[in-house]
Task: inverse folding
């Protein structure tokens, strides 16, 4: 009988490597008199956002960035937020701006993103960067999707020619990840809440991505034997523990490789945010980012 030996794709370890590479690039830039600056903008007091922002700030400071978080009250008006973005766009010490989403009710995130300088858009969400991604041009790419690709690459998992199915079509994860897989010559299907026979669609995948936000949605019967499964979902269970969109223990005997939750895609997101920021800083100084080493 044929045996599938599944591999756990260790995002924590890869993220550590990427962050070390980023630190080396930061040092190289600082040696040329440039300290990469990342500003995170947090509006309101959403508890999950507070945690994410703290982690981003800490990781950026550890990697040698000039990192700061601007905390604004939930009562902030749209015009004030736009003025702040204008000021950050003008500030030469700020190379990357991350607008923590979601914004409180009453604020228009799309309008804020439209205002942000695409060269400082380290989350890859401005219209210009979204268009560049789909046009196959060089762009700052959303961090979680970029982290998924990095995880595959660093495990030597080929993408070209493969059947990829992405479940989820958000602006933040599903769509940009589909665009990246397409740019790498996968044959890509995007599935969502209105897809018919989701299990059947998923079963076609050699690379299956779940970016849904439904705990343990993907079962063994959804997975083609030997498939690589990337679990982007972060869901809190009743006992307080985190789990993904994939029923990890159910699918484990079937998959070729899989990312765990936590410790899979999650840690890659911050690593790629730092990689994007150092790239933006190098570009702003007219330095080819690849001249600073990998990542
Ligand atoms: P989102 O904006 O809520 O999008 C969810 C997508 O899943 C939508 O396209 C939705 O379809 C689809 N969907 C919902 N229920 C479905 C179902 N029963 N069957 C098939 N498709 C379904 O979420 P997101 O921002 O993309 O995030 C997805 C998950 O990833 C969440 O758990 C989030 O916490 C996690 N996440 C993790 C990271 C990380 O760093 N690892 C980063 C970002 C997000 P429709 O479009 O038809 O509504």
Result:
């Amino acid at each position: 009988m044929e045996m599938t030996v599944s591999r756990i794709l260790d995002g924590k370890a890869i993220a550590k490597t990427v962050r070390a590479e980023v630190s080396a690039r930061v040092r190289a830039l600082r040696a040329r008199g440039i300290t990469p600056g990342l500003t995170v903008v947090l509006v309101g007091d959403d508890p999950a956002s507070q945690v994410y922002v703290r982690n981003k700030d800490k990781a950026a400071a550890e990697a040698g960035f000039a990192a700061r978080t601007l905390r604004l009250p939930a009562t902030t008006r749209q015009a004030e937020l736009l003025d702040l973005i204008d000021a950050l766009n003008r500030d030469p010490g700020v190379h990357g701006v991350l607008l923590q989403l979601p914004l409180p009710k009453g604020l228009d995130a799309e309008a804020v993103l439209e205002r942000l300088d695409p060269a400082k858009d380290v989350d890859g969400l401005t219209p210009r960067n979204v268009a560049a991604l789909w046009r196959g041009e060089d762009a700052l790419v959303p961090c979680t999707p970029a982290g998924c690709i990095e995880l595959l690459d660093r495990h030597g998992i080929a993408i070209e020619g493969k059947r990829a199915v992405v479940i989820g079509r958000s602006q933040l994860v599903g769509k940009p990840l589909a665009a990246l897989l397409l740019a790498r010559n996968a044959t890509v299907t995007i599935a969502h809440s209105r897809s018919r026979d989701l299990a059947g669609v998923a079963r076609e995948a050699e690379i299956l991505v779940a970016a849904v936000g439904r705990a343990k949605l993907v079962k063994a019967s959804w997975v083609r034997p030997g498939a690589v499964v990337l679990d982007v979902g972060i869901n809190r269970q009743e006992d307080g523990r985190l789990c993904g969109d994939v029923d990890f223990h159910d699918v484990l005997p079937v998959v070729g490789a899989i990312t765990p939750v936590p410790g899979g895609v999650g840690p890659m997101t911050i690593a790629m945010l730092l990689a994007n920021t150092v790239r933006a800083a190098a570009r702003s100084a007219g330095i080819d980012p690849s001249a600073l080493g990998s990542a």
